[in-house]
Amino acid sequence: DMLNLLNTLVFILYMVVLTLSQTSEKERILRLNSQLQTANQKLEEYAQELKRNAMKDALTGLYNRSYAENRITRLLKTGHSGAMLMIDLDNFKYINDTYGHNAGDAVLQMVALTLQEGIEAGEAFRWGGEEFVLILQNKKQQQAVAFAEQIRTAVEQSDNGVCPVTISVGVAEYDGKDYQATINMADQALYRAKMNGRNRVEA
Question: Which sequence positions are flagged as catalytic?
Answer without folding.
Answer: 130
